[in-house]
Amino acid sequence: MQISSLPSIIFSPSADNISIAAEGDIVVSTTVSDGSGVAVFDNSSSYSPNKQGYVNIAELSELVNAAILASFDTDNMLKAGARSASCTLRVAVKGGVTATTRALYMSRQITALQPIFATQMRRRSLIDGQPQPVNILTAGQSGLKLIVGAAYRLADNSGLSWREAVIQPDCSNDYFTFLADTSEIKQVTTAPDGSSLLYCILTLLQNDKQADCIRFDIDRKTRPSMATHFVYLNLFGVPEVVTFSGKDVEEQELDSDYGFAGRDYIRLDPQLTESHKSHSGWRSAEERRAIYDLMSSPYVFVYADGELRRITITDVDSSVSRPSNEPQSVSFTWRYADERLMRQPFIAPDTGKASVFAHPPFDKTFA
Fold first, then answer.
1. Considering the entire predicted model, what is its pTM?
2. Are 267 and 258 in contact (CB under 8 A)?
3. Is 285 helix (H, G, I), strand (E, B) or coil?
């Protein structure tokens, strides 16, 4: 891409090959600034043109993505509203042309900017208690509208009801996050008393024309206590959730050094580590691609007891047989990033009254 034609807003891969016409050596300054305008990278270098008379500045997407991740706040993973996933990229030729663009995080070869839901899945399941952030790409967009529709079965199976709500996304930043968990859907759409949620559909409109759509089916087969929710930073640089419904195997392993202290053979610096092997259950091709994105994400968390706990994926077990028209299963092994979360102690004081006799304390059987 010619430096003069660099758009004002891009996904980072669009900056992987910036061409500058030159007749001789030139000095190019490259600056990356965070959302507050502070320069996190500033470099000036001299370049010589190739045979075609161009200087090519390559692989700037890695620089941009690293700068965005460096300022990422993990406390906002499950926060609704406008969010940023970009930085400012400035490429200037000494004594020549200058280009400044707003570069959005992108870990895949995607360059087209359009109003979409920033996810790979357009049909998915939803379990009670599952966090579900849905992100809308709003950078450079206007005229957006989010329609939240939900189908309910009325109390006593007396009929069905369809409820809708309209939400105006905040387009002042790069993305707008809507929390589409079951409790939020019921609240936004004003669920009928005593009803049960069957499914919900999120429709994104731009200028009253459909731009994207996601359907959530309510999963009543998977018990909430058996589900493992992984919250991660997806390829767009925004939070996403993948839920595993298969078996979770917890394993302990003793890491230690051994040696002699006098005549005694002893254990030195013992560490009991805890690993989990989580199985996805049967997954469609669309869901499997999202799991691959999860495996390569720079930030992965487990959602447990209403908290996010960062983890590190240490091993992957995934294979695909083709041709096949059946869903596939994926599993991987992970550990808590903070070792203090391993082997969590169970300390629960007994504040009951099991040791107190009932009143009156004795009856005739105690004669």
1. 0.86
2. yes
3. helix
